[in-house]
Amino acid sequence: MHLKRAVLVAVVIFLAGLGMVSAREVLQGDQCQIEAGRTVTGNLLVLCRTLTVDGHVTGNLLGLATNAVINGQVDGNVYMISGQLDVRGTVGDDLHFGGLVLRVHDGTVFSDPHAGLLSASLSTTLSPGTELSGSIVAVGYQLVLQGAVNDEVDFWGSSLLIAGDVNGDVTAQVGDANADVSQLETLLIPVPVDLTLVRPGLQVGENAHVTGQLTYSGPSEAELLGQLDQPPIYNPVVVQPDFSQLNLGEEDQFRGLGLYLSQAVREFLTLVLIGVVALLLAPRTIQSPLRNIQVRPLPCLGVGLLAFITSFVAVPFVVLITVLIIVIVSLLQVNELTLAVAAILAVGDIGIASIVFFIVLFVSRVIFSLALGKLLTRVVIADDGSLRRNIISLALGGLILALLNSIPFVGWVINAITLFIGLGAILLIVQTRAEAAREAAPSKRYIAVQAPPLPRRSDSDRMLVPPPPLIDTSSEPVGMDNLPDGFHWWDD
């Protein structure tokens, strides 16, 4: 659910207003800067590695950059995709951001009384001394509010820290306060961003003041130290049944066991339903990766884990390419075409993401369940490959996997391992079929064409060329036969 919401909010953030803007000036290069005192009239499109805005942009600012800093003034909206964005200047309208880190520093001014902040990032921070007139809609790991927000706040993520004033309602879905963030901090070591992670959950600091209704959902209750004008509403989220509470009483024992069984039943029905449909519609396709799981489980685990990690890089890259295409189309200044392209790309991206999401989370585990069930049924009864025997194997493997995945604390580890193995088996069979198709494709052959030889006769049939005639040098030249005797004047 978090991924779907993140994708939808990202689409709203980056596509909602792009169809109605067009760039008057395009700035691209390694280091881009709008110097102090320089004014860019109209909208500005930026494609740079680093961006610094010290001057004045009278229209909207649309940018793709690794690092960006806004110290000057932007009269319109800001649409920025960046690794890190620091805002210290003046923003006339809404601020839209997608990337890793967004920091709104002290001294930032939002001119419009209804200006809001929309962010899809790892971390979004509103520093002390800042004031946002509008609302905040954020998706990501953490949202840190140390300044003042005069409207509502909506957040979907893991950590929400409120240390300032919020004059509207707060709606949040947060993570477990007991979770460990050390692994995420380790992954962020090579990333060149200035970021301090806040522990998961909802925290309302001592100096915070929320005048509206605070409604939040999460596995654990919030730490509420500040002033709340209305009683908070907490909607608990049960991720795994907590068997540590079974010793509190017989009623709690039945409740914990009921939660465990209900989750196991849901897991079992999901796997069996998807597996039966797959066996009926595409039996050979769903069974082709089984051989890889049985023969090469460790390579399947490694390939699946690598593909899962790679997906975290691929998804932002696809979103970045989509936004870039829409921005380029918007330069044609045909609003209808821009909206049509944006709608097509958004539907395509969401459709592809949904298919990949379904294969990774469900089909991969169905394949593992079928492989596990076939291994067990082969020991008890012979596997004749019939549909009935395959369904029995699927049900047996799905039951065992559902019971293991629902165990507290270790269930998510087992679930991740089975997911990686199933995904790796799918990718290996795809690779094998691609190589087979490439080898079966006819290769280009270059045939050397030679000119036909000229007709030749045999040596016996050849005509011998006669030698040149001999010249008789003994005869006198013409006209010398009638000269008188002793006339040799030419010899003198």
Model description:
The protein is α/β, with parallel strands linked by helices and 492 residues long. It folds into two domains: 236 residues, no CATH class; 194 residues, no CATH class. Helices cover 39% and strands 24% of the residues. It has nine helices and 23 strands. Strands 1, 3, 5, 7, 9, 11, 13, 15, 17, 18, 20, 21 and 23 form a 13-stranded parallel beta sheet that branches. Strands 2-4-6-8-10 form a five-stranded parallel beta sheet, with no helix packed on it. Strands 16-19-22 form a three-stranded parallel beta sheet, with no helix packed on it.
Give the SSE map.
Elements: H1 2-15, E1 25-34, E2 39-40, E3 44-53, E4 56-57, E5 61-70, E6 73-74, E7 78-87, E8 90-91, E9 95-104, E10 109-110, E11 117-126, E12 131-132, E13 136-145, E14 148-149, E15 153-162, E16 165-166, E17 170-173, H2 182-187, E18 201-204, E19 209-210, E20 214-218, E21 223-224, E22 227-228, E23 233-236, H3 250-281, H4 283-287, H5 290-295, H6 297-330, H7 335-380, H8 387-405, H9 411-440
Parallel strand pairs: 1-3, 2-4, 3-5, 4-6, 5-7, 6-8, 7-9, 8-10, 9-11, 11-13, 12-14, 13-15, 15-17, 15-18, 16-19, 17-20, 18-21, 19-22, 20-23
Helix pairs in contact: 1-7, 3-7, 3-8, 6-7, 6-9, 7-8, 7-9
